[in-house]
Amino acid sequence: QAQLVESGGGLVQAGGSLRLSCAASGRTFSSYAMGWFRQAPGKEREFIAAINRSGVRKYYADAVTGRFTISRDNAKNTVVLQMNSLKPEDTAVYYCAGKAIAFGDYIPRLPLSYDYWGQGTQVTVSS
Predict the structure, then answer these.
(1) Bridge-based pairing state of the strands 92-100 and 32-39
(2) pLDDT digits over 40-75, tens only?
(3) 56-91: b (≥16 Cβ within 10 Å) or e
(4) pLDDT tops 90 at residue 38
(5) Are 55 and 108 in contact (CB under 8 A)?
(6) CA distance 121 to 7
(7) What is the β-pairing status of strands 58-60 and 4-7?
(8) What's the chain's average pLDDT?
(9) Which pLDDT tens digit goes with each residue over 100-122?
């Protein structure tokens, strides 16, 4: 069973950047599709980005395309979300999530599709 721990959140001014990291335990990280989600107060959890097991294929939500980049390092069991040109509406708790993939190249984008979740890290963007 994987355990995920996010880090890198904080307070930043609009237009700034943050780099979120998610460290995974276990020896099967390379078999997981990984995703980032966020949840603002009073709102549902929202898909941000996802990456396949090898790191070759990536998906982004329209709201972050061109500003956020997801990447992974399977040797280090980490997935990173680089966030640039941040906006106040990006303020939320950000979660990383993992989905065990037995075969194929499936990349889930719905929260219910993921098996494992981190505890979340707060990102606050001031105007």
Answers:
(1) antiparallel
(2) 999 999 999 999 999 999 999 999 999 999 999 999
(3) eeebbbeebeeebbbebeeeebbbbbbbeebeeebb
(4) yes
(5) no
(6) 6
(7) unpaired
(8) 95
(9) 998 888 899 999 999 999 999 99
Angle at 96 between CA 65 and CA 90, to 5 degrees: 45
- Report whether 115 contacts 99 (CB < 8 A): yes
State what percent of residues in the chain have pLDDT above 90: 91
DSSP for 17-76, written as a single string: -EEEEEEE-SS-GGGEEEEEEEE-TTS--EEEEEE-SSS--EEE-TTTTTTEEEEEETTT
What is residue 26's predicted lDDT score, i.e. its pLDDT? 79
Closest by CA position to 92, among listed 69, 120, 118, 119 = 120
- Pair 123, 56: CB distance under 8 Å: no
In angstroms, what CA-CA distances link 42 with 38, 45, 46, 64? 12, 10, 12, 20
**Hunting for tokens 């037995």 — which residue is that?**
102
